[in-house]
Design brief:
There is one protein chain. It is built from 6 helices and 2 strands, in the order H-H-H-E-E-H-H-H. With 122 residues, it is mainly alpha-helical. It folds into 2 domains: 65 residues, Arc Repressor Mutant, subunit A; 49 residues, Orthogonal Bundle (Diphtheria Toxin Repressor, domain 2). Strands 1-2 form a two-stranded antiparallel ribbon. A hairpin with a 5-residue loop joins strand 1 and strand 2. Helix 4 packs across helix 5. The longest helix is centred in the middle third of the chain and has 23 residues. The model has no long low-confidence stretch (mean pLDDT 91).
C-alpha cells in the first residue's frame, strides 16, 4: 500500500504520542501537529478506511498491525536520518527537520544502503 506523506505524518505522530501517553485522541494529534480538529478528523477517517487505525467509542486511537508497522517504519527512518545528519555536523533541529522531509520520499533501497554504509564506518 502506498500512503501519502500526510498519512505517514499522522501515523508517526500517533506513535510518538502513544510513547508519551498510553492513550491518543484526535485532540492530542491536533494540538501536537497544530492542525484543526476537522482536518485531523478527515485524516483519521482516511486512516480508518485504509484499516491502519481503529477508534474505540471513547475516541481512543489504536493501530492495526499494518498501521503500527508503517508508523514504526517511518519513525525509524526519521530517527536514523536525524542521527546520520547530526554525525555529519548538522545541528539537531535542522537534522530533524530535514529527516522529516526526506523520510517520506527516500526509497527503502537507498535508506538500507545508508544504514549499511553507516554501520561500516562505526
Amino acid at each position: 500500500m502506498s500512503l501519502q506523506e500526510s498519512g505517514e505524518m499522522y501515523l508517526e505522530t500517533i506513535l510518538i504520542l502513544s510513547k508519551k501517553n498510553n492513550v491518543v485522541r484526535a485532540i492530542d494529534i491536533a494540538e501536537h501537529m497544530g492542525y484543526s480538529k476537522p482536518a485531523v478528523s478527515r485524516a483519521l477517517g482516511k486512516l480508518r478506511e485504509d484499516k491502519l487505525i481503529i477508534t474505540d467509542r471513547d475516541g481512543y486511537i489504536a493501530f492495526t498491525e499494518n498501521g503500527r508497522s508503517l508508523a514504526e517504519k517511518v519513525y525509524h527512518k526519521h530517527v536514523l536520518l536525524t542521527e546520520f545528519f547530526m554525525r555529519l555536523g548538522v545541528d539537531e533541529e535542522t537534522a530533524s527537520a530535514d529527516a522529516c522531509r526526506i523520510e517520506h520520499v527516500i526509497s527503502d533501497k537507498t535508506f538500507e544502503a545508508m544504514i549499511k554504509h553507516a554501520k561500516g564506518r562505526q
